[in-house]
C-alpha cells in the first residue's frame, strides 16, 4: 500500500493519526481564500517527492500526477518490488499494469492554462497543458517510470473513482490478463477553481470558525463536506503470483461491485436502492453473506442528504447492526474526491491488520436514524471478519469493495 495524505506519506503514520482521532483540516493558505465562503480544507503541506521524481519533471507536474507517482512507488516498495530492485527485475512487465484514476485530473495545469490563454494568448500555453491535464496521465507516467506494459488506463467516476479502479484491476487479474496491478486514485483540487466550483454546488461546509469540527458525518448539525486531497494506491496481485515471489500479503480482496443510481447529477436516491443493490452485488461477488460483514468504512461525506441515504441503504442489507462497526475516515481527512476510496481502502486494510478501527470524530449530536456503532470520537478494538468500503460519486456512481484477513 502507498499513499500521500494530509497526515504524510507513510501508511503506518497515517493510520496512527486516524486512530488518535486527529483532524487534518485547517485554513487554506495555498491561495488567498479570504473572499470564499469556505476557507478551509484538508490541504497537504510540505509535500516532497524527493527520491521518487527527478527535479526537472517534478517542477512541471500537476500535484495530481506527483501524488500518483509517489504513492505508486511507495506501494511497490511495501510490496517488496521497489523500482530498480532485483525483485522488480523478475516481474513480467507485460503482465503488470497500472489503473490509477482521478475525478478532476490535472486541475492546476488546466486552470493555469486557461488563465494564460485569457491574459497572454494561445502562444503562452505550455505544451504540457493537454498531457498533464487529462485524467489518464497519472497511470501513464507511473507505467513509464516502472516499465509496466500490461493494462494501463484510468477511470473517472467522481468520488467513486478509486473503488472502480480496484474493481477493474482485480477483474484483469481474475480473467488472467495480468498478474499484478497498481490501482487506486489521486486528486489535487484544492485550488481556487476547485473550491469555487464546489461552493457553487452548495456542497461545502462553511464552518470557518471551527474547521476541525466541520466534517461531522451523521451529526444533525452537519452542513456539507470538507475538501481533501492526496492519493491512495494498492498493489493487487494474484495469490499464485504473490506466493511464488514470497510477497508480504497483508489482506485479501474478496470482490466488489459497481452500478448507477440513474437518478440525479449530485443527489443520491433517498430510497438507497442503487447503493443497497451495489452492496448486495459486491457480497455476491465476494462469496460472503451479509452476516459475515462486521466492519464498514462508509462513504459518509457529512452532507445532509448523502449520509442518511447511505445509512438507509446499509439497513436494507444488514438487518442486525449490533455487531457492525461503521466509521467515517472523511471526518478527519476530508473528502479526497477521486482519491477518497484509495485512502479509505488503506484504512480498511489497516483495521483488518491491526485489530483497531479508527473513530468517526465530531460526533456531537448524532442522527437517531443511525443505529450502528459509528465508533464515536474514540478508537475501538475490533477483530474484522469481513470489511467493506463504500464510495459514491456525482452522477450516481456507486462502488463497494470487500476485504478480509488473508488466511493461507
From TrEMBL:
PROSITE patterns: KS3_1, KS3_2. One of its GO terms (cellular component) is mitochondrion. It is found in: Plastid, Chloroplast. Gene3D superfamilies: 3.40.47.10. Its main location: plastid. Keywords: Acyltransferase, Chloroplast, Fatty acid biosynthesis, Fatty acid metabolism, Lipid biosynthesis, Lipid metabolism, Plastid, Transferase, Transit peptide. GO terms for molecular function: 3-oxoacyl-[acyl-carrier-protein] synthase activity. It catalyses: a fatty acyl-[ACP] + malonyl-[ACP] + H(+) = a 3-oxoacyl-[ACP] + holo-[ACP] + CO2. Residues 1-405 form the Ketosynthase family 3 (KS3) domain. Signal peptide: none annotated. The active site is at residue 159. GO terms for biological process: fatty acid biosynthetic process. It holds the Pfam family ketoacyl-synt. It comes from the Eukaryota. PANTHER family: 3-OXOACYL-[ACYL-CARRIER-PROTEIN] SYNTHASE, MITOCHONDRIAL, POLYKETIDE SYNTHASE-RELATED. Belongs to the thiolase-like superfamily. Beta-ketoacyl-ACP synthases family. Homodimer. Catalyzes the condensation reaction of fatty acid synthesis by the addition to an acyl acceptor of two carbons from malonyl-ACP. This is 3-oxoacyl-[acyl-carrier-protein] synthase.
Amino acid at each position: 500500500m502507498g499513499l500521500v495524505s494530509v497526515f504524510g506519506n507513510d501508511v503506518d503514520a497515517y493510520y496512527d493519526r486516524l486512530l488518535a482521532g486527529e483532524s487534518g483540516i485547517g485554513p487554506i493558505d495555498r491561495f488567498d481564500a479570504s473572499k470564499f465562503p469556505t476557507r478551509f480544507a484538508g490541504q497537504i503541506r510540505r509535500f516532497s517527492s524527493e527520491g521518487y521524481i527527478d527535479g526537472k519533471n517534478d517542477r512541471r507536474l500537476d500535484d495530481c500526477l506527483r501524488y500518483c507517482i509517489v504513492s505508486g512507488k511507495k506501494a511497490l516498495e511495501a510490496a517488496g518490488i521497489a523500482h530498480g530492485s532485483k525483485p522488480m527485475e523478475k516481474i513480467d512487465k507485460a503482465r503488470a499494469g497500472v489503473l490509477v484514476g482521478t475525478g478532476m485530473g490535472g486541475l492546476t495545469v488546466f486552470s493555469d492554462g486557461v488563465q494564460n490563454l485569457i491574459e497572454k494568448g494561445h502562444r503562452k500555453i505550455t505544451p504540457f497543458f493537454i498531457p498533464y491535464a487529462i485524467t489518464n496521465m497519472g497511470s501513464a507516467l507511473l507505467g513509464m517510470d516502472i516499465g509496466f506494459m500490461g493494462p494501463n488506463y484510468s477511470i473517472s467516476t467522481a468520488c467513486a473513482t478509486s473503488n472502480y479502479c480496484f474493481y477493474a484491476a482485480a477483474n484483469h487479474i481474475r480473467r488472467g490478463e495480468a498478474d499484478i496491478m497498481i490501482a487506486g486514485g489521486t486528486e489535487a483540487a484544492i485550488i481556487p477553481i476547485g473550491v469555487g466550483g464546489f461552493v457553487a454546488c452548495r456542497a461545502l461546509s462553511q464552518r470557518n470558525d471551527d474547521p476541525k469540527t466541520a466534517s461531522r458525518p451523521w451529526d444533525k448539525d452537519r452542513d456539507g463536506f470538507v475538501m481533501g486531497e492526496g492519493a491512495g494506491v494498492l498493489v493487487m496481485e494474484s495469490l499464485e503470483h504473490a506466493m511464488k515471489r514470497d510477497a508480504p500479503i497483508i489482506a485479501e480482496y474478496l470482490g466488489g461491485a459497481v452500478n448507477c443510481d440513474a437518478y440525479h447529477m449530485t443527489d443520491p436516491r433517498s430510497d438507497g436502492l442503487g447503493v443497497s443493490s451495489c452492496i448486495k452485488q459486491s457480497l455476491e461477488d465476494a462469496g460472503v453473506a451479509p452476516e459475515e460483514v462486521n466492519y464498514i468504512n462508509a462513504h459518509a461525506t457529512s452532507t445532509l442528504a448523502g449520509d442518511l441515504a447511505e445509512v438507509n441503504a446499509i439497513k436494507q442489507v444488514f438487518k442486525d447492526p449490533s455487531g457492525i462497526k461503521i466509521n467515517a475516515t472523511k471526518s478527519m481527512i476530508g473528502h479526497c474526491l477521486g482519491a477518497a476510496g484509495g485512502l479509505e481502502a488503506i484504512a480498511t486494510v489497516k483495521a483488518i491488520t491491526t485489530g483497531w478501527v479508527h473513530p468517526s470524530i465530531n460526533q456531537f449530536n448524532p442522527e437517531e436514524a443511525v443505529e450502528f456503532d459509528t465508533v464515536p470520537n474514540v478508537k475501538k478494538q475490533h477483530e474484522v471478519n469481513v470489511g467493506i468500503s463504500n464510495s459514491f460519486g456525482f452522477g450516481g456512481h456507486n462502488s463497494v469493495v470487500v476485504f478480509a484477513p488473508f488466511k493461507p
